Amino acid sequence: EKVIEREMPEVQRVAYQEAIAYARSNGGPATMLETLHKLRRICLHPLSPDEPAEDSIFISASARFLVLFDILDAIYHSNERALIFIDNRAVQAQLIGLIQRRYKLSSPPLIINGEVPGAVRQARVNSFQRGEGFDVMILSPRAGGVGLTLTSANHAIHLERWWNPAVEDQCTGRVLRIGQTRSVTVHIPQCTWAGHHSFDQNLHALLQRKRQLVRETLGPGEFSGDELSELFHETTAG
Question: Which residues have CB under 8 Å from 49's CB, separation 6+?
Fold first, then answer.
């Protein structure tokens, strides 16, 4: 497992700081959930996928995207294959084009999310499993976490974290099933904010603590209200 940190580019840092400033001046439970979802989105990417931007500009606006394409470049040169786990469907769609154009793929990367019916989903899994050479599949954690065998990939990239570490572990398990013959690398891109503990860093620490707790007690994997409150206060503290 590799946690790879990158300082937020300016456009991302400005959006992040504005969200933090708003949360500090508008307290309350409703603001807490609104802020956490806003920070989750900004840390993935600060620009709307609907905003037209050249590929290089779009990638360079997000620390996680800069890390992602560094990872994919290395996987491409090694002629290996990767799964990218991301929940945001608009950004999923954006990624398809970015990856196809950057690596000059003859067809767009396959995607599995809640909109893909079961029969089509299995056909896409079969197609990916039969393929050779560099390729990428994009999966929603909720749709890709259970029942799929994708051992032709030996890289799992958690581009957008899930609130439940058990679901995240199930996603990683897609490449660790019977039939995997190579070492598997799990990549976790994170954005940082100089002088502060960022949302990404705080969420990762909370997920690690929750993961250990679930393993020791077999308790629920979803975050409690207190844990979400902890994440909010640690992230927005001065």
Answer: 90, 91, 93, 94
Q: What is the pLDDT of residues 197-208, one digit of tens each?
A: 999 999 999 999
pTM of the entire predicted model: 0.93
pLDDT digits over 118-135, tens only?
Answer: 889 999 999 999 999 999
Token digits of residue 170:
């199930």
pLDDT in the model for residue 216: 75
Determine the residue type at 81.
Answer: R
Report the sign of the C-alpha dihedral through residues 203, 4, 105, 148, in that order: negative
According to the 3-state scheme, what is the secondary structure of the chain? CEEEEEECCHHHHHHHHHHHHHHHHCCCHHHHHHHHHHHHHHHHCCCCCCCCCCHHHHHHCCHHHHHHHHHHHHHHHCCCEEEEECCCHHHHHHHHHHHHHHCCCCCCCEEECCCCCHHHHHHHHHHHHHCCCCEEEEECHHHHCCCCCCCCCCEEEECCCCCCHHHHHHHHHHHCCCCCCCCCEEEEEEEEECCECCHHHHHHHHHHHHHHHHHHHCCCCCCCHHHHHHHHHHHHCC
Tokens of 116: 């893909």
Residues whose CB falls within 8 Å of the CB of residue 146, separated by 6 or more in sequence, listed in order: 170
Token pair recorded at residue 81: 């294959």
Rg of the chain over Cα atoms, rounded to whole angstroms, equals: 18
Residues facing 4 on adjacent strands: 189
- Write the pLDDT tens digit of every residue in 62-118: 999 999 999 999 999 999 999 999 999 999 999 999 999 999 999 999 999 989 988
* Model pLDDT for residues 137-149, shown as the tens digit of each residue: 999 988 866 678 8
